[in-house]
Amino acid sequence: MTGSDNTRAPWRNFYGRRHGKTLRPAQQTYLEEDLAGLSPGAVAWEANPARRPLDLHALFGDRPLWLEIGFGGGEHLVHQAARNPGIGLIGCEPFINGVAMLLGKIREAGVTNLRVHPGDARDLFDVLPEASVERAFLLYPDPWPKKKHHRRRFVTPEHLEPLARVMAPGAELRVATDIPDYVRQTLEQVPRHGLRWTTEGPADWRKPWNDWLSTRYEQKALREGRTPHYLTFVRTGG
Ligand SMILES: C[S@@+](CC[C@H](N)C(=O)[O-])C[C@H]1O[C@@H](n2cnc3c(N)ncnc32)[C@H](O)[C@@H]1O
């Protein structure tokens, strides 16, 4: 918290990019016309300094909630929304060019069960009710390959603790990565937060999930000769 002012966002160590190349005019239009209507309400600190929980019923009725963290260009998120109309999905992504790409894909696919938080996942975790998420996707999180940067990775307590809090008992967390050392850190850290790795053998971390759609980042990894790993965890407790 900044000084004694509890209406301001806490400082958070975000090291990724928020802006890239100049947006195409169509993308600018998607942001101007669509984003406000697709934002899941009071996630921004300015709009909700008291951090009241989101009204998920108002957003999605009785539909279960799935979450995609760092959706990149949004291809996997729109794919899941289209094949699961009975689910409500929220995607978060601080990189505004990615958000604009997603909005274009939402228009194209015509899906209505999707909301977008154009920012840090931690701001969303703050306002999600406890045990409200039935499935979470963390697909190719930023690798931060240098050892001195490993603490910037998503699979660290400052992200995993609030993620675990918002996941329902029995909820699934899917993590994909092409970086062996990221697999190591994920397998070390995630189970410390009440999420059990469901492996039964190599087949299940070498093979994608049955409903998988390969992401832009995975395509790049494959072109560059790196091997995807698919890890599935289940939230324990209940
Ligand atoms: C390597 S990219 C992968 C994008 C996409 N999932 C894919 O597979 O193509 C990682 C993404 O995570 C996003 N990211 C990084 N930190 C984040 C955070 N704290 N909350 C939400 N997204 C984050 C980045 O902006 C980036 O777009």
- Overall mean pLDDT stands at 93
**Main sheet summary:** 7 strands, mixed
Number of helices: 9
Name the overall outline.
globular
Please give the alpha-carbon distance between the first and last residues: 32 Å
Radius of gyration: 17 Å
Structural overview:
The protein is an alpha/beta fold and 238 residues long. Helix content is 34%, strand content 18%. The chain has nine helices and seven strands; from the N terminus they run ααβαβαβαβαβαβααβ. Strands 3-2-1-4-5-7-6 form a seven-stranded mixed β-sheet. β4, α6 and β5 (167-177) form a beta-alpha-beta unit. The model has no long low-confidence stretch (mean pLDDT 93). The structure holds S-adenosylmethionine. S-adenosylmethionine binds at residues 14, 16, 69-72, 92-95, 98, 120-121, 139-142, 215-218.
Topology (SSEs and partners):
Blueprint: H1 25-38, H2 56-60, E1 65-69, H3 75-83, E2 88-92, H4 96-109, E3 114-117, H5 121-127, E4 133-139, H6 157-166, E5 167-177, H7 180-189, E6 195-197, H8 203-206, H9 216-223, E7 229-235
Parallel strand pairs: 1-2, 1-4, 2-3, 4-5
Antiparallel strand pairs: 5-7, 6-7
Bound molecules: S-adenosylmethionine.
